[in-house]
Write a structure and sequence with these properties.
about 50% helix, alpha/beta, about 190 residues
Length: about 190
């Protein structure tokens, strides 16, 4: 299972679909799974049930998806906040699509469908979540200023390096086995 994590606006859903198509795997977005299962949009769930109830639904959706067939899975930006979800990610290939807060604000400008954007502590939340994503990641790819197709190509390249190091073959360019593989930061 390839699991994409990252802050909102990182491009997880779009990059996930591109990766899945290139790898011949299904693409699953846990936010879409929640909406399909509940028949309600995420903003409505936040508004009527509250964030803790949404996080319960999210944790259950992630567990179900990760127990299913191989896929490229895009997690919601807050899904890794729960220890149960972090534990379930062990044993899967986790890709952190890293996005700066400046890019998040630019990419989500005018988006009213993301309840977390209304929080007053967005900068702190971004920093906290970014640290969690980095700790979980097998691979990290910077998305700032890059089209989704370039990000998907960078992920595929980083996954190839990771597969090589996991197979016991020396990694190219002096990369250390077991260390997160980073894509070039320039587009």
């Amino acid at each position: 299972m390839i699991v994409l994590v990252g802050f909102m606006g990182a491009g997880k859903s779009t990059v996930g679909r591109l990766l899945a198509a290139q790898l011949g795997l299904p693409s699953t977005d846990t936010d879409a799974v929640i909406e399909q299962c509940t028949g309600r949009g995420i903003p409505e769930i936040f508004r009527t049930d509250g964030e803790p109830a949404f996080r319960d639904l999210e944790e259950a959706a992630v567990a179900d998806v990760l127990a299913g067939p191989q896929a490229v899975v895009s997690l919601g930006g807050g899904a890794c906040g729960r220890e149960g979800t972090r534990a379930r990610l062990r044993g899967h290939t986790v890709v952190h699509l890293d996005v700066s807060l400046t890019q998040v604000r630019e990419r989500t400008r005018g988006d009213t469908g993301r309840p977390v954007l209304q929080r007053g502590d967005l900068e702190q939340l971004h920093a906290e979540r970014r640290a969690v994503f980095t700790a979980l990641a097998d691979v990290e790819v910077l998305t700032d200023g890059r089209p989704a197709a370039d990000v998907a190509a960078a992920v595929l390249g980083a996954l190839a390096v990771l597969d090589t190091t996991r197979a016991g073959t020396p990694a190219p360019d002096g990369a250390l086995p077991g260390a997160p593989q980073h894509s070039p930061e320039e587009p």
